[in-house]
Design a protein that fits this description.
Length: 529
């Protein structure tokens, strides 16, 4: 690869970089060359396409459906109805801080490139880039693992209900069948992501439309069909303290209920990772981040309200003895239709709507993963880097796509031995990813406070304040979601999130001290000449 100097060497003479790269190219190509990279990916995404990928990854149908039972158990309606806007408020602040940095540095590398540039004045760029990059990439793989495994589990429930239900002799797929579902889903996602970006753009826009329409259909249809509906008083004031976790503190319960909201609102760094394929990237990338979060907030709250109006008996919905085997929202859908029509088929169809949304969420997640792998390996940070950053004739990072699918499959394998081990691994999906979000924001408000040059999208004088609030929120949720979720604490009930995240930090730090500090210089230019 031509040119192995570190990115920071380019910063001193931007005009020379553009001149050396050729001055007649379009604005986006010039901007990318100014940042040190020769364009290799096809720039074919509009603002809506960029937004669609991120909106599909956030996918309120995915997060709220898979963790609705958690919300019901820990706080119930109050924790969900009021916890959602609380988490949303701080999430949009994190998104604004990220969007401002994205506008200044619109590259596929995203977070780790931002950290390198923001720390370049203090010579900490390579280490900051290494730390941020590995938290980002492992967090993304964990997100894909979690999303596709949750789809496999939902398929398990759909089959159970379709064959008679838990109490009617229905078929409950074994853990080996579930992992086979997971593998098949990942295989299909890898195949789709091997298609040209124009196809991915189409699928992304379709997925965004499906998520939007699906939310509105379900939030109206399910409570409308149910013969018994919850009162407004129940939806807005009922606080469920009855849980199987042995937790009695109302504040503690409410905090645990926030997990549903915070887990749902992740993955919006995808817009940054797609900027090298997005037109007017320094404007449309940041707008993609903010619009995806903002619209998800509105439709997500509506979805929670609509479904909660169909909730009556929380203990029964959470019971493993119900028809859905304890999958709360599936039981809500099933009972709503069965109560009116004598059959739960309509509820199963509704679960199918959710399953399609989760499928597209996983597909878009692999898209984002592969762009991060492509960028990180382009800068030599990964083993076998020359292999992973190759692009095919369609200008798709094909090897990065298949690597992302394979790693996500491997991360699900611990579920065969221990769900505790699996849950520890996927906990990185929320906390690990948010740490990666917070690192460049922290560097922007500290080390780079005086020399940061914003792009077209900027927060002006409020940038530092917004950045600090974002960092403090990430610190807060990191602590809160590391607390025990079940008492008494045993090896089977311990919350392994701090173990998993701490273990990742130790591995990344050790690899830096032992090896990477000698050869990894941060983002490198691939410009010739």
């Amino acid at each position: 690869m031509a040119g192995q100097s570190s990115y920071s060497r380019l910063a001193g003479d931007e005009a020379a970089v553009i001149s050396a790269a050729g001055g007649d190219d379009d604005y986006d190509a010039k901007k990318l060359r100014l940042l040190g990279y020769e364009p290799q990916l096809k720039r074919n995404l509009s603002l809506f396409s960029n937004f669609s990928v991120t909106f599909s990854i956030i996918s309120v149908l995915t997060g709220t459906t898979t963790l609705y039972g958690t919300g019901l158990e820990f706080g119930g309606p109050v924790a969900m109805v009021y916890g959602w806007p609380i988490a949303d408020t701080f999430t949009i602040i994190v998104g604004l801080a990220m969007a401002e940095i994205c506008s200044a540095y619109p590259t596929s590398g995203g977070l780790y490139f931002w950290s390198a540039r923001l720390c370049s004045e203090r010579c900490w760029g390579p280490f900051a880039s290494w730390l941020t990059g590995w938290f980002n990439i492992v967090g993304q793989w964990a997100v894909t693992t979690s999303v596709d495994f949750s789809l496999a589990q939902l398929i398990q429930v759909i089959i159970l209900l379709s064959t008679g239900g838990n109490n009617g002799g229905g078929y409950l797929a074994s853990k080996y069948v579930v992992i086979a579902f997971h593998a098949a889903i990942l295989l299909s996602h890898a195949l789709i992501n091997s298609l040209p970006i124009s196809w991915l753009s189409f699928f992304g826009q379709f997925a965004a439309a499906w998520n939007m329409l699906g939310v509105f259909v379900l939030m109206i249809a399910v409570p409308a069909v149910a013969t018994e509906r919850a009162s407004a008083k129940f939806v807005f004031t009922h606080f469920n303290t009855d849980n199987s976790a042995g937790i009695h503190s109302n504040l503690y319960i409410f905090v645990l209920g926030l997990l549903m909201s915070q887990y749902t609102l992740t993955g919006y760094d995808a817009s940054a990772h797609m900027t090298e394929e997005t037109k007017n990237a320094d404007r449309n990338g940041p707008i993609g981040i903010i619009s995806a979060i903002g619209i998800s907030i509105v439709v997500g709250w509506g979805y929670i309200l609509g479904i909660t109006f169909a909730v009556k008996d929380i203990p029964y919905l959470l019971s493993p003895d119900n028809e859905a085997g304890g999958y709360a929202i599936a039981e809500v859908f099933y009972l709503a239709f069965k109560s009116r029509y004598g059959s739960g088929v309509g509820g199963i169809v509704c679960l199918g709507v959710v399953a399609v949304a989760i499928y597209f969420c996983g597909m878009s997640s692999v898209t984002s993963n592969s762009r991060m792998v492509y960028a990180f390996s382009r800068d030599g940070a990964m083993p076998l880097s020359p292999v992973w950053h190759k692009v095919n004739k369609h200008e798709v990072p094909i090897n990065a796509v298949w690597l992302s699918a394979f790693v996500s499959l491997c991360m699900a394998l611990p579920s065969l031995g221990s769900l505790v081990a699996f849950q520890a691994m996927v906990s990185i999906a929320t906390i690990g990813l948010y740490i990666a979000y917070a690192l460049p924001i922290f560097f922007r408000v500290t080390l780079a406070r005086k020399h940061f040059v914003p792009g077209p999208f900027n927060l002006g004088r409020y940038g530092v304040l917004v950045g600090w609030v974002a960092v403090l929120w990430v610190v807060t949720i990191t602590v809160l979601f590391s607390l025990p979720v079940t008492y008494p604490v045993t090896k089977d009930t311990l919350n392994y999130t701090p173990v998993a995240v701490g273990g990742l930090f130790i591995l990344v730090l050790t690899s830096w001290v032992v090896s990477a500090r000698h050869w990894f210089k941060g983002p490198v230019t691939n410009l010739s000449g």
